[in-house]
Design a protein that fits this description.
Largest interface: A-B, 54 and 56 residues
Distance between the termini of chain A: 37 Å
GO molecular function (chains A, B): DNA-binding transcription factor activity; transcription cis-regulatory region binding
Organism (chains A, B): Deinococcus indicus
Structural class of chain A: alpha/beta
Helix content of chain A: 40-55%
Protein name (chains A, B): LacI family transcriptional regulator
CATH topology of the largest domain in chain A: Rossmann fold
Number of helices of chain A: 13
CATH class of the largest domain in chain A: Alpha Beta
Order of helices and strands of chain A: HHHHEHEHEHEEHEHEHEHEHEHEE
Pfam family, one (chains A, B): LacI
Strand order of the largest sheet of chain A: 2-1-3-4-5-11
Strand content of chain A: 5-15%
Number of domains of chain A: 3
InterPro entries (chains A, B): HTH_LacI, LacI/GalR-like_sensor, Lambda_DNA-bd_dom_sf, Peripla_BP_I
CATH architecture of the largest domain in chain A: 3-Layer(aba) Sandwich
Shape of chain A: elongated
Radius of gyration of chain A: 26 Å
Oligomer: homodimer
DNA sequence: CATCTCAATGTAATCGTTTGCAACTGGTTT
DNA sequence: AAACCAGTTGCAAACGATTACATTGAGATG
C-alpha cells in the first residue's frame, strides 16, 4: 500500500501539502493540487484509515449490532443502515448478538476498540447494563428499547399494530383469540402484548392467560406454542392467533398445517412484520407490516445528525407507523360444529419439520 | 476511552511494561502483571485497534463482500464467515455490492483503507478487473469464481447439482424442460446451465435455446422469464422448469400461480438453493440444496489458514457437494390434454406431507 | 570480590496521518 | 525602503500502541 509519503515524493511536495491537497483542496495552489492528485491516482493511493482515525479521533465509523442477521427483518434494518451510512461517507460495522446478552457484550467490547463514533443497537435484555460501561458513546436504540431514561430510539408503533391486529380479529367475530408473544423483557413483545390485552378489554372480551404463550422469537418457539394452543379441547381452542413476530409466525403456520387445520377456515392467523414468505405462502398472510428498511435509514440518519450537531437538540425518539395488511389468513370463525374432530394431536407428530436455521451458538 | 498510558500510570509502570503485561504475559513478573491487569480491569481498558493496527501492520480484520445481504443464502454465508472469524479472534467487515460492479469497486476501496488482512468475496462480473488493483491482498472467492488463474476458491458443485436436477426431471418423463438461468458472466450460472445442457444431451434430448431464458438473479427476472416461457403455445410450453437460483425461483412460482398452473400437476419446478421459503411453500419445493453456512465457515477458515502459514501450501480450491432434495413440486408431466383449465389453485390445499430438510450441521 | 548472566523494566523510535506554527514568496501599502 | 499582507508550503509534534535496544539489579560463577 502506497502511503502519503510516496504520493508526496512523487509530486515533489511535503507530506503536509499532499495531505492538504487531498482533504483541504482550497488551501493549496491549483497547480500543486493537480500534481498531487495525479500522483495519488497514479499510485492508487488510499488513505490509511487507521492512521487518520488515530490522529483525528474521528473514524467515520459506526457500529451496528442486530440480534439475528438471518431474520429478514434484521437484514433489512442492516441494509437500510448501511445504505444511509454510505451516503454520508460513513462505514457501518455489523455485528450479531444472536439474542444472547453475552455475545452482545463481546460485540460491544470488540467494537469499542475500533472507536466507532456511534452505535445503532437492537438491544438484548442485557443491553441496559452493558451500555453503562460506555457512557459517552452516542447510541440509537433500534426497534426495541432498553428503557434507559434519555435514550435516543427509533421504533415502530407496536401498540397501534397490536391493537389493529387484535381488533381485526374481534371484528371478524372471534372471541377466543390466542397470542404467541415474545420474551417479556423485550419491549416490543410487551407492547404488543399489552395492546392485545387492551383491545380485548375494550371489546368487552376477557383476557384469558391460558391463551397467551411466550416464545423466544424463533420459529421453534412459535411451533411449540401453537401446537400447545391448538391442541386444547375444541371448546377452549382459540379460533384465531395473533403471533408476536415473523419467525414465530412461521412456526405457528407449520403447527396448524401439522394439525391439518385449514387457514383461515379453521384458524385465523395474523403475524407481526411482513415478509416475502408471508406474501407468498398459501394463503397469503394477514400481517402488521413494519417499515424495516426505513427504520434502518432513520436510525442511521438520526445518529449522524446527533454526531454532527452535538449541541443541537435533534429529536430523541422517532416512531414509525405500522400497517395492517389484510390478506387471506383471516376469516370469521367457523360455526361451532359438534366434536371438531381434529386429528389426535398427540399422535400428530409434525409431518413438516420446522426448518431450523443454521446452528445457533 | 482510557489509554494504555492511563493503565501504566495507575499500575505504576511504564507503558512498555503495561503493554507486555497484557499481550506477553510471560515477559513480566507475576506481581507487576497482576497489578497491570487489575488496573486495566479497573479502568475498563480496551486496546485501541487503530493504534495497534498501525504499529503492527496487523489488524486482525478481514473484509467480506457479498452481492445481496437480503438474500438468505448470502446472509447465511455472512453468518458462517463471521462466526468462524470470531472463533479465531478476527473481525469481519461486511459489505454489500448489490450485484453492481461499481458498488463493489467502492466497497473494495473503502475496505482497503481499513487494511484488512484478507478478503472473502462473492464476485460480481467486475471483480476480476478490480482485484488487479490490489495484488497482494489474500482473497478467497466464495460461491462464484472470477476465473483468475491461481485464485483460492470455495464453491459448490454446481455441475453436479445442475445435472441431478435435470436428470430428475428427465426421469420423471419430461421432455420439454425449460431453464431460467442467471447472468452468463457469473460462473455459477454458466456451470448450472452447462450441466443442464449436458444432461439433456446425455439423455438424447435436444437442447432448445428457446426454452432457456436469462435473468439477473432477482425475483422479478424469474417472474418475467417464467411468464414468457409458460405463455408459449401448449405444445411448446415446457412442462418442467429448472430455475438457476433461489430468488428467481420465487418469481417463477408466482408466475405459475398467476397463470393458474398447478404445481406439480401442470408444471414441475426444481429450484437451486434451499431456503425456508422453499420448504414451507405449497407444495414444498424440490431443490438442489447448498451448504451455505458451511461455505462461509470454510471460506473463512481457508483464508485464515492462508494468512498464518503463508509458505504452507494449503488447498487452493474447496468444493462442497450439493444435495437434490425431493419434495413435491415435481411429478411426471400431465398427459397432453387440451387447455390448461385447471381448478383455481388457490382453493387447492394439497395434503401436507413430510418434507424434511437436509441434516444441518 | 569482580564479573557474568539473565530476568525485569524503562527509553525511545516507529507506524501514516493531520495540523499548529513558522517560514518563505511576491506584491502592496505606508 | 520598511512594514505588512495573503497565499503557499514545510517542519515537526501529536494520536496510542508495540518493540528493538538499553539499563538495572540480583544472584551465580570464577
Amino acid at each position: 500500500m502506497p502511503s502519503i509519503q510516496d504520493v508526496a515524493q512523487l509530486a515533489q511536495v511535503s507530506t503536509a501539502t499532499a495531505s492538504r491537497a487531498l482533504s483541504r483542496p482550497d488551501m493549496v495552489a491549483q497547480t500543486t493540487r493537480e500534481r498531487v492528485l495525479k500522483a495519488a491516482r497514479q499510485l492508487g493511493y488510499q488513505p490509511n484509515v487507521l492512521a487518520r482515525g488515530l490522529r483525528q479521533g474521528e473514524t467515520r465509523t459506526i457500529g451496528v449490532i442486530v440480534t439475528d442477521i438471518l431474520n429478514p427483518f434484521h437484514a433489512t434494518l442492516a441494509k437500510g443502515i448501511q445504505d444511509a451510512a454510505d451516503r454520508h461517507g460513513y462505514v457501518a460495522f455489523l455485528f450479531n448478538s444472536d439474542e444472547d446478552p453475552a455475545k452482545e457484550r463481546r460485540a460491544l467490547d470488540t467494537l469499542r476498540g475500533h472507536l466507532p463514533q456511534g452505535l445503532i443497537l437492537v438491544p438484548t435484555s442485557g443491553a441496559r447494563e452493558h451500555l453503562k460501561a460506555m457512557p459517552d458513546l452516542p447510541v440509537v436504540e433500534l426497534d426495541r428499547v432498553t428503557g434507559r431514561p434519555d435514550a435516543t430510539t427509533v421504533t415502530t408503533d407496536n401498540t397501534g399494530g397490536g391493537a389493529a391486529a387484535t381488533r381485526h380479529l374481534i371484528e371478524l367475530g372471534h372471541t377466543r383469540i390466542g397470542m404467541i408473544v415474545g420474551q417479556q423483557d423485550i419491549s416490543t413483545a410487551t407492547e404488543r402484548h399489552d395492546a392485545y390485552r387492551a383491545a380485548l378489554h375494550a371489546a368487552g372480551l376477557t383476557y384469558d392467560p391460558a391463551l397467551v404463550l411466550p416464545g423466544n422469537h424463533r420459529e421453534d418457539d412459535g411451533y411449540r406454542a401453537a401446537m400447545h394452543l391448538l391442541s386444547l379441547p375444541a371448546d377452549h381452542r382459540p379460533t384465531a392467533l395473533f403471533v408476536g413476530n415473523n419467525e414465530m409466525t412461521v412456526g405457528a403456520v407449520l403447527a396448524a398445517r401439522a394439525l391439518s387445520l385449514r387457514i383461515p377456515e379453521d384458524l385465523s392467523i395474523v403475524g407481526f412484520d411482513d415478509s416475502r414468505w408471508a406474501q407468498t405462502m398459501t394463503p397469503p398472510l394477514t400481517v402488521v407490516a413494519q417499515p424495516a428498511y426505513d427504520l434502518g435509514v432513520q436510525a442511521c440518519e438520526l445518529l449522524l445528525r446527533r454526531l454532527s450537531a452535538s449541541g443541537n437538540r435533534t429529536p430523541a425518539r422517532v416512531q414509525l407507523p405500522t400497517t395492517l395488511i389484510l390478506r387471506h389468513s383471516t376469516a370469521p370463525p367457523a360455526r361451532p360444529r359438534s366434536g371438531a374432530s381434529g386429528p389426535d394431536p398427540s399422535a400428530a407428530h409434525p409431518p413438516v419439520t420446522p426448518s431450523t436455521g443454521p446452528p445457533r451458538a
